[in-house]
Amino acid sequence: MRPDTPAENVDHNAEAARLERTAGLYPEDAEHLLLQAAAHHELSGDRPRATTLYDSLLSASTPLDNPHLVRALKAANLWEYGHEAEARAIIDGVRAAAPRDPAAWVIVAESLETHDELEAAQDTFTQGARLLLTDVAEPPYATHPLLFGRHRVRRMLGAPHDEWDALADTLHTAPVSLDELHDPKRVWSLGSDNPAELQAEIARLQSELTTAREALSRPFPVAVLHWPEDELEELTTAYPSLSEEYPSHADHLATIEASLRELSTSGTPNLGIVTGTVPSYEAFAASEASSPADVALLPQYATTLAARGLAVTWPPERGAVCWCGSGRAYEGCHGS
């Protein structure tokens, strides 16, 4: 699907089928591609087929990058076509697992909100915020929807502003304030016969659309290529000329962290890391009619991995494991 294709012109069934075929060709990207395919099935109204894709991901022998996100999406989908009890059980499981991914929290909280479980939605948003944002100096971009969703639900409940609501207000950059956007009376104005009220609501909706488009159009991360130790050894053995680029694995890891810190200091936003594999790199080189030994191909490979949604945000969130794969917390590893 082209990014400039109007939503009403999309054949969701055809797009889902294309993504499923692509997932079969690129199994290393299957999680990302099948989640997109499931979304198209949901949009087409074929929610059972979407559930089948979520189940296939969860039952696969290959570990998922984000199993909690898949479970959250499955729960939200199930509830939409009558499987409330199963959806609630999955939501309880996601909350109990306390995932570090804000998207999983947002999805289950919004599912509760959609079905008028406002108190439960507020509790879920708050639980996620408390886990991910306590003692965090600057909320990562990915956590903003968590704060905005919490603000919205509390506005609907008539709860007074607290510190996190105030933080959401400061993060919101659209001309219309969050208090206005989240005013429960807004929905009533859509049925008004007063042209002034309708025009005001149209302006608010345009502001929301602008914010949503800005979020969707955020550029791919400036991605730095990371090779695990065994992959780097295989790479330099097969292509000895790359040893000049990668004299040792320890130097490689140190260079990644130093490069990202330098980019961050210079003000470059949205930084990320992509992890390469030799088979994937060789396939990319073949698609470019180039040799894997060509050092100029490496940054192109990193950009392609990022464009396929495989970049991991740098720096990791507080308490998260280091990007290098050591298993240690980032603060006690390359973040020290």
Give a description of the structure.
This protein is mainly alpha-helical. The protein contains 16 helices and 3 strands. The protein has 3 domains: 7-185, Serine Threonine Protein Phosphatase 5, Tetratricopeptide repeat; 186-218; 222-332, no CATH class. A 3-stranded mixed β-sheet has the order 1-2-3, with helices on both faces. α4 (67-80) runs antiparallel to α5 (84-97), α6 (102-114) packs parallel to α8 (144-157) and α7 packs antiparallel against α8. The two termini are 42 Å apart.
Quick description:
The protein is mainly α.
Number of helices: 16
Query: What top-tier CATH class of the largest domain fits best?
Result: Mainly Alpha
Strand residues, percent: under 5%
List the domain count as a whole number: 3
Name the CATH homologous superfamily of the largest domain: Tetratricopeptide repeat domain
What is the string of helix and strand elements? HHHHHHHHHHHHEHHEHHE
Return the average pLDDT rounded to an integer. Answer: 86
Radius of gyration: 22 Å
CATH topology of the largest domain: Serine Threonine Protein Phosphatase 5, Tetratricopeptide repeat
Strands of the widest sheet, in order across it, are 1-2-3
Low-confidence stretches are: 1-7
Q: What is the CATH architecture term of the largest domain?
A: Alpha Horseshoe
Give the proportion of residues in helices: 55-70%
List keywords for this structure.
single chain, 336 residues, mainly alpha, Serine Threonine Protein Phosphatase 5, Tetratricopeptide repeat, 3 domains, 3-stranded mixed β-sheet, 59% helix, 4% strand, disordered N terminus
